[in-house]
Specification:
Blueprint (H helix, E strand, L loop, with lengths): L1 H22 L9 H11 L6 H12 L7 H19 L9 E2 L2 E2 L1 H5 L1 H19 L9 H15 L4 H10 L7 H26 L4 H23 L2
Antiparallel strand pairs: 1-2
């Protein structure tokens, strides 16, 4: 019974995030229409929407009450989506399907696959910047942007992906394997929890606690995904 209620609530919140994402989709018009169509296709191709959900719940847990969090929720899902689009490319995993649908490069071509991933990453920060239009302190938004950029970049998700690609098929010791999962998988979950906390006014110590929670959630997910 409890599991059924949980799944119902999960579906409800996932659906709400889907509607939120639609509000931030760029209009499919102009000379750049092909790449916008590829972006929107990728972003709305489904998924658990775990990262924006965790971000929103953390924001509420730390006392956040307004809609400042919403641009960041859309932004982190754009970053996650761009990473999947690029992961699927022939130079990486060369996947033809994701979640039962053609991958972006198979539907729109390899060039649009690359460009739409680039556009989603840049669009993520364009979207997050919209939080400056709210009444939240600019310093809090700045801290959140710093976290998001760091966790998505070479010292976060991209860094983990680099080692995963370089060591594909090769032996990795425990430290290196931890590095891959800590960055490739956990980094954006850490970003979601930390950003939600910071935007609600959490201090550095509280943000660090949420960072560790994100790391643990990411590793638990990877164990389930790879082993169980």
């Amino acid at each position: 019974m409890e599991e059924t209620l949980f799944r119902q609530e999960l579906q409800k919140r996932t659906a709400a995030i889907e509607e939120l994402l639609k509000e931030y989709l760029p209009a499919e018009e102009g000379y750049q229409k092909p790449v916008i169509e590829a972006m929107n296709y990728s972003l709305m191709a489904g998924g658990k929407r775990l990262r924006p959900m965790l971000m929103q719940e953390t924001y509420k847990m730390f006392g956040g009450k307004d809609d400042t969090i919403e641009p960041f929720m859309a932004a982190i899902e754009m970053i996650h989506t761009y990473s999947l689009v690029h992961d699927d490319l022939p130079a990486m995993d060369n996947d033809e399907y994701r979640r039962g649908k053609l991958t972006t490069h198979k539907k729109f071509g390899e060039a649009m696959g690359i460009l739409s991933g680039d556009a989603l990453l840049n669009g993520a920060f364009e979207t997050a910047f919209l939080a400056f239009d709210s009444e939240t302190e600019a310093a809090q938004i700045g801290r959140a942007l710093k976290i998001l950029g760091h966790k998505a970049g070479m010292y976060g998700m991209v860094g983990g992906q680099v080692v995963d690609v370089e060591k594909d098929g090769c032996f990795m010791d425990e430290d290196m394997l931890y590095f891959v999962h800590k960055n490739k998988t956990s980094a954006l979950i850490e970003a979601a929890l930390m950003t939600g906390a910071v935007l609600a006014g959490a201090d550095e110590k509280q943000a660090a606690v949420m960072e560790q929670c994100g790391a643990d959630i990411g590793l638990a997910f990877q164990i389930q995904d790879d082993i169980l």
